[in-house]
Give the backbone structure.
Amino acid sequence: MIGVIKVKPGVAFFLILTAAALPPRPAAALETIQHEEGSTCVVCHGDKETSLNGSIHAHFGLDCVSCHGGDDTQVEWEKAMDPAKGFKGAFTAKEVLFLCDRCHGDYERMRQFGIAIDQLQQYRTSEHGKALFLTGNEKVAVCTSCHGVHDIKKVTDPESSVYPTNVPGTCAKCHSDPGYMKPFNVSTTVVEDYKKGVHGKRLLQMDLAAPTCATCHGNHGAAPPGVAEVVNVCGKCHLNIREEFKKSRHFRKGLECVNCHNNHANVHPTKAIFSRKDPGGCRHCHPDADSKQGKYISRILNGIREAEQALEKAEKNTERAEYNGFYVDNEKVLLQEGRTAFLQFANVQHALSLREGTKVLSTAVSKAMHVNENVEIKFRTITDRRITMSAVIGYLLAVLALVYVKYRGLKAAYTREKNRAS
């Protein structure tokens, strides 16, 4: 989808003839427009001028002539849009690319902004670029299709069409249009699938660290990752998982991340993936519970459940002990170590090693059990102390009672003796 301005001389001539039927504009009025606006283009193209004025290009001094050529000091359209002065009203798809590259491929111009100058070279390697340069298909996206035409914003501007949260919508302009994509035989559900996936949900919740279409496919060099590239593309963010996965039999057999996690509609994995029988679940490929793989799945799933239960119990015990006034900083450290070990399993499991998987899960269980034992000792100690204290107090009360009884007996005997003497 190409955003270009088509200013045909015939149309412009028709507008001039229409304007001629109206009362002539005083020369002073034209001079005022030229003086206030700085360009006679605004006489006919005021809407384009408004868009341009809010763009990043206008911020750095570019105007209509910078791209379209011509002479914007002339009122007569023949002079303003004189081809002899370099005027070009409409651009073909290829012309758009070379026009943008005139500045964006110039190192001396771009170095001050830290902008790469190889965008055109990257574009040639993309699916868009191949379709344009190798087959001549001009329906493909070019610079203006994604960045806009006159109203191009800085990439970091939230109003920019290529700001991270706007990228899915920008790609959807073409990739969600069945009629537009039909000749390319490309699915038109990818953007909607992405929005349902964990990446899309995080991005739409304003998590700018979440991957967009361009994160995986590239921007100027946009292309679907090849089969051998998927693990490396995912590994740009999931580095530790990538290294573990490369140790696995799945990787050696040619499987990729998308075989289990899907590509666009990827979901946050839970332990249910081990028992699921639908595509992406372990039981989909390994339905036999008595096979080697089936037994591995069962042992890992049991280990996960045991670790979850132990950590949950340890967390509750720690909270209960703290509520009762016990010092539990050491237990909190142990609990965190257990949680960390459990989180490590998310990486280690991709290696499909029973030894490594059960090792980290056993560590999580061990740390949790240590917490539970410590808390139990704290409560048992205070209970024993209370029992001991109760026994001591009981003994003392008994002694006091005996002393009191003895005292009363002696006092009574003394009273009797005193009465007898008197």
Q: What stands out?
A: Residues 131 and 137 are 6 Å apart (CA to CA). The radius of gyration is 39 Å.
